[in-house]
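Re: [help] complex structure
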Amino acid sequence: MTERRVSIEINGTTYDREIEPRLLLSDFIRHEAGLTGTHVGCEHGVCGACTVQMDGEPVRSCLMLAVQAEGHSLRTVEDLAAEDGTLHPLQQAFHEEHALQCGFCTPGFLMSLEPLLADARDFDDTQVREALAGNLCRCTGYQNIVTATQLAARRMAGAEDAA
Amino acid sequence: MKPPPFDYKDPRSLDEAVAVLADCADDGKVLAGGQSLVPLLNFRLAQPAVLVDVNRVAELAYLRRREGKLQIGALCRQARLEQSPVAQESCGLLGDALKLVAHQQIRNRGTVGGSAAHADPAAELPVAFACLDARFKARSKRGERVIDARDFFVTHLTTSLEPDELLTEVEVPELPANHGHAFEEYSRRHGDFALGGAAVLVMRNGDGACREARIALLGAADTPLRAREAEQALAGQKIDEDSAREAARVATRDIEPTGDIHGSSSYRKRLIEAMVRRAIVKAAA
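Output below.
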């Protein structure tokens, strides 16, 4: 197989690699970029664990070839927390509201839900449920994830009002 | 669970794409949004010698309204069509259908042309296109041709596109402003493939009676299926619970859906009948 030279931008860092075109984006992120926060569950687009953001929109990284990501801007769960380790309000709310148990699915949930918070502060539970419908969690029963998302939204709105 | 090796081509223009496809003979497969094809590659159910990735053919990503028609470039993402005010205004049925297509992450990447060319009889967009009398534009080195919806979907996962042809556009005629539309389906979990469903359009007369109805069934056969006899039965009628029930009965009288572990053939038949009835009532409301 002919390998290709690619430059792929993830979380503001460019990774130059020589890869096979059949390499999945999820595997590039984990094995080439070493960003193992993105988890691979079903590897056929059903579970949502591998969700990352491409140009700000959540997509399944197991349903893309890495070569297709060239020229786009990718964001993974590693980019959510601040450099000093302070959690993103959504991560903090997940922690406080028990929105995770084993945590395997959590990176996918965070990357699916974060754009909702970036776009708006007032959304109802139905919108949260729609945004997370493509992610499977076998531990929580989802209710705490919805609660945490609403808590994060209230806190982010409060921080803006205070500023 | 990893794609098999393939020769990868990523043409940058439509001309280049059809040239590459012509060179592939029967061994090429077009990759658009990849939301159906990449799982098939991961499972190795598809092992094309050449993968022709059209995602860099930017000229196919348009969505425009022209001369009473909505023209959707094959590479237009499903999310963009779903969020487009122009599409909502001129072809509301597409919005009804897209809400039912998988999940936001899938629609962000999935393309309109890809869903049409994949031709899954349980997918929503092909059913909506059949209902809307859409036309499909295909390009090859031999030229361009336009295919009517009734000729486009041939059987399960098969269209009338030739191996060297690329689907470039789906063209949907706009409907009168006062038409009604509805897409009803049933699935065990939101976003899963539906067990059955129906798309319905109702064009009204000045007195509110139905001038023309269109009914397309999801999951009833190996392609989207238009229920033309039931459509004719509704024409000129006032639509109410009784006429909707009768039309739904006629629409599904002769169908034989494929049964499987998720639902027997007879269950699916009754399910589709219920979906048709609900969609007619909703579209006429």
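Residues 89-162 of chain A form a domain with the DNA polymerase; domain 1 fold (CATH 1.10.150.120).
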